[in-house]
Amino acid sequence: MNIPDKLPTYDVLGVPVTITTPVHAAQTIEEWSKDDIGRFVCIRDVPSLMTINNDPAIRDLHLEAAMITPDSSYIAKIGRLRGLPVQQTCGPDLIDLVAKRSVQRGLSHYFYGGQEGIAEQLAEVFKARYPGFQVAGTECPPFRALTKEEDDAVVERIKASGADIVWVGISSPKQDVWMRDHYKHLPQTLIGVGAAFDFQTGNVKRAPKWMRKVMLEWLFRLASDPRRLWKRYLILAPRFVWKVTTTPATEQVARSR
């Protein structure tokens, strides 16, 4: 499949979201693994889109991303309402799909993120789930900022690992900034999947399929951790709906350029 490096997008509040599906995103990542060009992929849900887009210091990182997938069913629906072939492409599903497909394709993976031990646990989950799954390395960085020496060492470890894909799970927007600051120094595709590390290892329970199907996964997550997530779903999400319905499409596109 011949996939162009510059992927078509549609605009959501100035963010160029890629017109994609889980399978197309996986195929694209596989194509990118054939070269040594560093790229990064943002997986954008509503709260992270609002957080990053409201911060001028990091807003333009979207313009450097090689792909921005619609993590949220609502962001995907905006594309479908415009007649585009878009499907929700969220972190937990994408990492599992790529992991499954990568066994036959011989791709290796590096897991960077999570609390102590989570990256190693995730690697074991996929090795058990998909025999032949290749792990190039795992690392759980400290929550504090790294020194320059520590950061340089991280880059060298990832380079030396020979990984084809680097999965980054240090939450958004921290992971997005990390990918933007490092992709030019690495030959791999970096993919920021946030809580997917916790979902795939079972450390955080995911909403049942029926809730995901009717676009209520956000409600399940809010009920599971209201103290941490109330602002994300009760303030940022309503603001998103208001801005999408009141901002003219022409103005949104102008701000994305």
From TrEMBL:
InterPro entries: WecG_TagA_CpsF (IPR004629). The keyword Cell division does not apply. Pfam families: Glyco_tran_WecG. Keywords: Glycosyltransferase, Transferase. CDD domains: Glyco_transf_WecG_TagA. It comes from the Bacteria. The keyword Disulfide bond does not apply. NCBIfam families: wecG_tagA_cpsF (TIGR00696). This is WecB/TagA/CpsF family glycosyltransferase. It comes from Novosphingobium mangrovi.
